[in-house]
Amino acid sequence: MDARSAKRPADAPRGERVADWADGRLGIYTLAKTQMRKVFPDHWSFMLGEICLYSFLILILTGVYLTLFFEPSGVEVVYNGSYEPLNGIIMTRAYESTLDISFDVRGGLLIRQIHHWAALVFVAGMLVHMMRVFFTGAFRKPRELNWAFGWTLLFLGILTGLTGYSLPDDLLSGTGIRFSQGAILAVPVIGTYLSFFLFGGEFPGHDIISRLFPIHVLLLPGIMLGLVVAHLILVFYHKHTQYPGPGRDQKSVVGMPFMPVYMAKAGGFFFLVFGVLSMMGAIATINPVWAFGPYRADLVTTGAQPDWYLGFSEGLIRVMPGWEIDAWGHTLQLGVFIPFTLFPLILLAIGVYPFIEAWITGDKREHHILDRPRNVPTRTALGVSWLSLYAVLLIGGGNDIVATHLHLSINAITWSVRIAVILVPLLAFVITKRVCLGLQRRDRDKVLHGRESGKITRLPHGEYVEVHEPLTQGQRFTLTQHDQLPPYDVGPLVDANGVERKAKPTRRLRARLAHAMYGQNAHIPKPTPEEYRELTSSEDHH
User: Fold this and answer.
1) Alpha-carbon distance 220 to 211, whole Å?
2) Cβ-count burial of 19 within 10 angstroms (0-12 exposed, 13-18 middle, 19+ buried)?
3) By the 8 A CB rule, do 134 and 48 touch?
4) What's the gap between Cα 20 and its chain centre?
5) Basic and acidic residues bias: where (predicted)?
6) 3-class secondary structure per residue, 273-342
7) pTM of the full predicted structure?
8) Pairwise CA distance, residues 135 & 350, whole Å
9) What is the pLDDT of residue 464?
10) What counts of helices (H) and strands (E) characterise the chain?
11) What is the pLDDT of residues 461-504, one digit of tens each?
12) pLDDT digits over 10-66, tens only?
């Protein structure tokens, strides 16, 4: 009989009896026994995902507090509060309640600052975390769905940030809403209808804040919370990925158990993240809405800039030429519509990349060992190319700020960004790929000849050579454990009898992409055991 099912003595501690009662109805013991001792690898880069999780929890906690005092109303009132420079100014109730939170609610300004900083760290953490997953190939089977969940969280995080950024109805956020409304109007045929539906009439209307509020505090966070739970469940269900090294393979994980080691470290790390965000909120002011004043449709702030994660989209629009097409009595604003379309398409390309790579390689195996970025040069080059495009467009989104601070011509900056949008990603791709190949050559030399020791010795015949220290078996394994499988090939197009075999265009495209990404020019052959034995057994090996 199971010891847990045996009746405990009457004098057993109350906690044990409560645990028995809960386990008999929920099966907690069995679940805890199988999951609480789950092993997790120990590497600093795995903490990036935890930063995202903890900043999301802090966002929820601070958001609940702010919701108690914020009024999402577009009704106009005359301000007569603690911030005297704005006394007598007409503003919306949303902006007035934001000022009240900042100056009258105990701890309100600190909570606002923590909330905003947590939002920035959340999106930044997700981007860096996804780049770690991308460069190491952690998205491969069986984790494609987890990548899709993470990508959706990033996209929803950007939208949530946009809606929250717009709620205070200050001059800066109102300018951002005006920017969004202009992009919506550029949509052919239905743009005007979408704008009227969203704003409840002509811009700015009185309904936009009350409509954004439930989206920001209920709809988007609810979806994100569900995705976070699903993401964590899959992390537990799949074995955790780990970096290559001795004792690590596709069937075993080297690390610490979830309970108590990892749980204790994770709990301490949560309070560390909370403390850092609190310190940032206390000493680094962000979004001082009282300095901008209330939004008016006839005004715009000097140097109006969105949060950094939306600078990418604004950069697309700012550097795009002002092209227009007049047809059938309608004007199509290509200068706005094309960038407005490119922004989600570029993000979508990131979301579907794991499925594209799996199709190109035809690899059906499960992968629990991470790639070293240098061993997959084309993928690494694509990632760096995307990051360089993001950086260029971020500069384009702040071309006026760059011009005023560096005393440069805004036209020169705009044209430089237009050229760099095409040139910089290509250069980044080529340079990154060559660097990866160079690092592969260095790894090959290390395995065959050992590590340079810096010691110079003289041979009997007078030659001076540097002594190389051989690598340990574990170090050699780490440098040579990766696979170098031949790329997908359509095979001969003519059989032995001279009959031509037709290959579908998709198969031809797949073969070309496979050879470009994983062909002979995409990697340096790793040393074979025969090469190593031949060199190490040679009498003149140093």
Assistant:
1) 13
2) middle
3) no
4) 43
5) 528-542
6) HHHHHHHHHHHCCCCCHHHHCECCCCCCCCCCCCCHHHHHHHHHHHHCCCCEEEECCEEEEHHHHHHHHH
7) 0.88
8) 12
9) 85
10) 20, 8
11) 888 887 888 888 888 888 888 888 888 888 777 766 667 777 78
12) 667 777 777 777 777 777 766 666 667 778 888 888 889 999 999 999 999 999 999
Angle at 501 between CA 500 and CA 502, to 5 degrees: 115
Q: What is the 3-state secondary structure (H, E, C) of 170-190?
A: EHHHHHHHHHHHHHHHCCCCC
Give the amino acid at 172: L
SS3 159: helix
DSSP 3-state of 75: coil
SS (H, E, C) 427-479: HHHHHHHHHHHHHHHHHHHHHHHCEEEEEEEECCCCCEEEEEECCCHHHHHHH
Q: What is the sign of the dihedral through the CA atoms of 489, 494, 499 and 501?
A: positive
Please give the single-letter amino acid code of residue 314.
E
| Burial of 134 per CB tally in 10 Å (0-12, 13-18, 19+) | buried
Give the Cα separation of 501 and 130 in Å (integer). Answer: 42
Give me the pLDDT at residue 541, please: 47
Q: Are the CB atoms for 443 and 525 separated by under 8 Å?
A: no
- Spatial distance between the Cα atoms of 269 and 51, rounded to a whole number of angstroms: 8
Q: Which tokens hold the place of 54?
A: 């903890």
